[in-house]
């Protein structure tokens, strides 16, 4: 089994000698731990988004964040720790985005989130098929919460009761990241720049309308089956 990459960008070697910890490149980082963590995570998000987990290098993350390799080890332990911290951050944001009044509005917010902070979408689409991603258990638990939330929305009539909740969740997620994951296809299909704010606003509104149409279809079905003057419709 290959050793996990250390902060130096090289496989870890067993040694009884303790390495001397160097100071961060930017002295201000020592006085601002919150800002330091944020800078490291921002750099890590860009690195994972560009290269995936296997291709990401801690040395590049350190250089981009303006910190020493050892400081990343101090805060996160290594590449896997960075990925798990990012996954936790993304899951927390996912919960915040989903806590809206309607399903349609939640979809609009996801579209904007993916367009304005595309690193997480790029990271997901770069994962190798058939492999177990880091932080898989935490991600699976969060996805289960989303499915249960959609089941509750379905019970409230926010979309049709004859639709499979898991399939709806997958379509909703795919639609949210499509312009980021498939920019060329998005450009050709819409004849717009998928990275522009104008496209993002328009696309988010259209996807929200599609979701709203499912709710309207539910209401229309209920209206068709409702009794008139005490008698059900034929």
Provide structural commentary.
α2 (33-55) runs antiparallel to α3 and α6 packs antiparallel against α11. Mean pLDDT is 78; it is low at 11-24 and 225-234. The protein has 234 residues and is mainly alpha-helical. The protein has helices at 28-31, 33-55, 58-65, 69-76, 79-98, 103-116, 119-125, 136-155, 165-181, 183-190, 197-225. The chain folds into two domains: 22-77, Arc Repressor Mutant, subunit A; 87-127 and 134-220. The chain has eleven helices and no strands. Residues 57-76 bind DNA. Residues 1-36 are annotated as: Disordered. GO terms for molecular function: DNA binding. Keywords: DNA-binding. Residues 25-35 have a biased composition (Basic and acidic residues).
Present the secondary structure layout.
Layout: H1 28-31, H2 33-55, H3 58-65, H4 69-76, H5 79-98, H6 103-116, H7 119-125, H8 136-155, H9 165-181, H10 183-190, H11 197-225
InterPro entries: Homeodomain-like_sf, HTH-type_TetR-like_transc_reg, HTH_TetR, Tet_transcr_reg_TetR-rel_C_sf
Keywords: DNA-binding
Protein name: HTH tetR-type domain-containing protein
């Amino acid at each position: 089994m290959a050793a996990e990459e250390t902060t130096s960008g090289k496989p870890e070697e067993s040694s009884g000698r303790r390495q001397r910890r160097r100071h961060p490149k930017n002295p201000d980082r020592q006085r601002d731990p919150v800002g330091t963590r944020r800078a490291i995570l921002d750099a890590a998000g860009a690195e994972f988004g560009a290269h995936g987990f296997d291709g990401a290098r801690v040395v590049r993350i350190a250089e981009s964040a303006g910190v020493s390799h050892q400081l990343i080890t101090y805060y996160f332990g290594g590449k896997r720790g960075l990925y798990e911290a990012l996954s936790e951050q993304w899951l927390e944001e996912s919960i915040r985005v989903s806590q809206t009044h309607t399903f349609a509005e939640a979809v609009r917010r996801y579209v904007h989130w993916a367009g304005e902070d595309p690193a997480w979408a790029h990271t997901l689409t770069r994962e190798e098929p058939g492999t177990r991603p880091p932080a898989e258990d935490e991600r699976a638990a969060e996805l289960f919460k989303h499915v249960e939330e959609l089941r509750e929305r379905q019970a409230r009539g926010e979309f049709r009761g004859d639709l499979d909740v898991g399939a709806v969740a997958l379509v909703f997620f795919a639609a949210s990241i499509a312009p980021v994951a498939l920019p060329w296809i998005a450009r050709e299909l819409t004849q717009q720049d998928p990275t522009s704010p104008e496209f993002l606003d328009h696309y988010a509104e259209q996807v929200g309308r599609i979701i709203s149409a499912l709710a309207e279809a539910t209401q229309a079905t209920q209206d068709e089956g409702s009794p008139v003057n005490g008698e059900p419709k034929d």
